[in-house]
Amino acid sequence: MATEGPAGESPSRSKRSDAQRNRQTVLTAAAEVFVTSGVDAPIRQIAAQAGVGMATIYRHFPTRADLVTAVYHHQIEACAEAGPRLLASADSPLDALRQWIDLFVDFLVTKHGLADALRSDSDRFAALHAYFLDRLLPVCAQLLDAAVEADEIKPGTQPYELMRGIGNLCIGCDNDPRYDPRRLIALLLQGLRQSQAR
What we know:
The chain is mostly helical. It contains nine helices and no strands. It has helices at 11-37, 43-50, 54-60, 64-89, 93-110, 114-117, 122-149, 159-170, 181-192. 24% of the residues are buried.
């Protein structure tokens, strides 16, 4: 019979929760490193950022593609979960949409290099892209519908075209310091607004 640890947890449950915490720490650190150094950053840099040994990273993510995929899964989930939370807490549905788009842009900016990192495994990339659409399109639709219902934006904008448009505005922003996609995205959102909501 397993003995309980100091918090009343069995050793195996405590080990699992430690492993889960380590995994989350690595994912958060890897996402931060990918923003500054790209998805080809050395694993030792991610380990240093996470405060874990390289063996811990390889135990959870045997290949770089495993790590890259997990980071983007993690970020897609965070973005998906933020939509309903923002809708419940923001001053208005339009404000919730704006805040969610800001998170979406943050996600897109960290996504640079994803295709190259997963090029050797096109099935994995296709599955990740399908997951991205499955999780985020309904959230975007919910936010758009709420803003239309509140008479804050014009009806008729499709979630896919909005997300695709924002994605296109984000392309190449890291290669040109004079280009800020957020300014153009703000103009795009302004164009969605009802005239009395201006």
